[in-house]
Amino acid sequence: MEHLDATLALLCAFAFLAGFVDSIVGGGGLIQLPAMLLLLKGVPVPTVLGTGKVSSVAGTAAALRRYAGQVPIRWQAVGAAAVAAGVFSFLGARVVSLLPSELLRPLVLGLLVVIAIYTFWRKDFGSIHAPRLPESREPYYGVLIGVLIGFYDGFFGPGTGSFLLFAFVGVFGYNFLSASASAKVVNVATNLTALAYFAYTGHILWQVALPMAACNMLGSSLGARTALKQGVGFVRVLFLVVVGGIILKLGADTFGLHF
């Protein structure tokens, strides 16, 4: 019993940290999922993923609630992206069984390196909220982004939050805070799609998922509050740190390095 309590306490601590980071720039899965795979030995991988999705959905929703009303969210565009992403995330998950997702890893690695260099080089990137698209055209771009990133999220996954953040800043002209809030709307949609599938197939350990969800929500609320207080400069720096972490992880996987 003590061993189970200690394991759950560790999982909750990682869920809190994942929620904090994910609420600001995404990438919480890099913290939460490896911890779950390590600590829940013997549990089938689909069940680990399903259990983690409960935590992720709860945390993302909590972050979105904190952002809503505090930063501008263009709901027409972001809603269109969320619906498209939710549908195509499911399609991506179905296609992954037909094609080897490893084929994407070098391409994604290269794209993330470009994103990191561009964001670092452009010091003013994402510092000013100045939407550059006509409001009537934003939903169309939102659908396109939702289709591409939603499919990618279902098919492969790593870096989805970073790609969303970069898209809302680079394509729409949002600042990092508004882009982060907008990304949460899309994340909720894709996570709910995945959660529905895992719940339907019975791949959720609710006795683990619910405490983790509560801790993820606490971390997400604190993270969103910190981002709102510290501003776009803080979000930009953390974005670069998380993208760097994803690059290192994908690079190690691509070249077969183990640390």
Automatic annotation (TrEMBL):
Residues passing through the membrane, by range: 77-97, 103-121, 141-174, 194-219, 231-252
Key words, A-Z: Cell membrane, Membrane, Transmembrane, Transmembrane helix, Transport
Subcellular location: Cell membrane
Annotated Gene Ontology cellular component terms: plasma membrane
Lineage top rank: taxon: Bacteria
Database matches in InterPro entries: TM_pro_TauE-like, TSUP
Membrane topology per record: Multi-pass membrane protein
A Pfam family matched in the record: TauE
Recorded family membership: Belongs to the 4-toluene sulfonate uptake permease (TSUP) (TC 2.A.102) family.
Name of the featured protein: Probable membrane transporter protein
Organism: Hymenobacter oligotrophus
